[in-house]
Amino acid sequence: MANADHDERGVNLQAVEERALSAHAKLAAICGAEAPSDFMKIVFAVLETQHPDGSWGSNDTPKQKPTLTAATIGMLTRLGIEIRSDTIRNKTGPSEPVYRALRWLRHAQLDDGRWGEDAWDTCQVIRTLWKCGFKEEDEGIQKALQYLRVTVDDDWKDHSSYWFGAGFQGAALEVFNLVGAPTYAAKVLDQLMEYYDDTIGCFSTPKSPDDPLHAPDEWHTANALIGLHSYASVLPNLAQTTRAVNWLKACQREDGCWSPGHFEIMAYTTCQSVIALSLIDGWNSSEARRGTDWLVEQCIRDNMSHRTLLLMAGTAISRTHHREVVATIDFLFLRELQDLLMEYLRSSTNLLTDRNDLRAQLAATQAELEAAKESKSGLESQLAGVKDQQSVLRRQWEESRESETRLQQKISEYALKLTANQLAVLGVFLTIVTFILSVIIALALAD
Q: How far apart are alpha carbons 286 and 120 in whole angstroms?
């Protein structure tokens, strides 16, 4: 007989589960230190840097974690590691990192509906959750969209932010087109075009002596182009959009990055530029791939210790090299999966044999039960005979009691049926007898 995990034939379900974990470990090895490419090393490193609570990003900058977590989920879904909202549950397997990240994002939303520091961060999370299956009926999405609508209606509240400008409108434009809100999309488009600099053909933030510090124009232009691309084939303001694309390409440095200067800002700008150009020209855009290569090179040079840079490099890889990564995983992991499936097949065959044995045992037990039922029928017949004999004895006993009762009644009738006259005669007779006896006794005594 088989127990829950093992039987005489060696079917060990726990061993099969351990086999599956071993398969996942080998997948990690494929992407790990011995990976055939730097891309695979970065994919593995990204998975390794997930925090226990499910988030990604540096704990030194917690306000950036929602945006980086959302971007990493996007990276994993493009690599085929995804989970949909209608199947979210506690489960193991390739989707577990995404599941934990989504759960963390759900709890990281602030009371006013936003995530992170500002509307741009919120847009990144909305886009990710929407693509993972969370739609307008979801309470978190409702709160976030309401926050975004109020922000647009109030002419934005983030003017003091270093990053504020056309990039915010570009992110909001993408979200409103994604969720199907054409009225707000049109309103944001008008606001976005106010930031278009016709003299150089890019999107920028107006500089003022009181507030000279703002994010690079390359960052704003990239985000604006991402928002404009959300109109798909019907690009609005085509002439300005085309000029902005050409301007962004021309700004790329020979080494592949954008906006030289502060390293982290340069990485953010390069990542957004890779996303924009891969959307516009496709995954094989030469400029986008050069930008990805620059990000990867910086990660390798830094031994992948800079978490923010690592996550941006992973995002860029998923945009420009996802086909290579997925094909590499599929090719190197195929043999391992085949072995695992054969193990499952052997286990299922043995379990089928066990099931047939159990079926035979069940049939034998059923036969014994039928025999017991027949034996029970014989005992029931004997019991019925005893019950009949008991009924006969009971009837005889009842008849005996009835005869006794009638006899007692007869005796009572003869003993007690004396009339008053009979009693009087009896009394006189007894008196005469008593008198005679007294005379006899007296005479005897006189002699």
A: 27
